[in-house]
Amino acid sequence: MERKTYLIFGVSKGLGRAITLNLPDGDDQVFGISRSEPDYLSETPSVRWISADLSNPVESVKTLKQHIGNTKIDYLIYNVGIWESDAFSDDYNFVTNAPEELISLIHTNLTSCILGIQSMIENLKKANQAKIILIGSTWGLDNHNGKEVTFSATKFALRGVAHSLRENLRENRIGVSVLNLGYLAMEGQADEVMDAGIETTTWRRLIPLQDVILALKFIISTSDASCVKEINMPAMDDNNM
User: What start and end residues bound the annotated signal peptide (predicted)?
Assistant: First the structure.
């Protein structure tokens, strides 16, 4: 089987870490982007870490191109989603959010996504059945119940990026998908979820990491005859949707 090359953003922790450690095959190559260094590099020689601050889009894209050059990219996964410091809490107050924080959030979640993909188009064209996968959120879907204005705006915008990219890249047979996730069980919680049999009220509101990995495996396994546009994936008992 042909060796695949992944470009994965946000690899140091959480979902990005899980994707990097569980999605590629052992002989695949991974370019992993994050600001902080992942803790698993010594055990994963196939992962080449690239340090980049996505809140500075222009510089981060320059760094990306310097390290990757003209290398073929089979799968680009933009897994980045920071939110307001008071998000998802009773203390959230849009009026008091600092403008600097909101600008940084927009640059990280959206601007770096657009510029990063733009810089990698020619790399993706070198691959057979290349895929672009954007990790979105149920906060980017119609009629969600969340109050987080700027986070929600970036996730709605991510879907717009995908819709238009799809039309730009249709002739190149490059798939563009968005995976809109609800609340996710993070590392350290995943084993507890499984041990509990996902039976408690708390765990039923969280998506197990392994379910997300399976959704990603489905997307990358499809041929270029199919177009997986969006997968919406809240937890079964997630009342936000």
Answer: none
pLDDT in tens, 149-181: 999 999 999 999 999 999 999 999 999 999 999
How confident is the model at residue 163, as a pLDDT? Answer: 98
User: Tokens for 43?
Assistant: 């055990």
Give the mean model confidence (pLDDT) for residues 132-140.
98
According to CATH, what is the number of the domain 5-233? 3.40.50.720
Q: How far, in Å, CA of 178 to CA of 138, rounded?
A: 11
Minimal CA–CA distance to 116: which of 147, 159, 73, 82? Answer: 73
For the chain, the domains span 5-233
Cα–Cα distances in angstroms (integers) from residue 214 to residues 87, 150, 185, 211, in the given order: 28, 29, 15, 5
What token pair was written down for 134? 């954007």
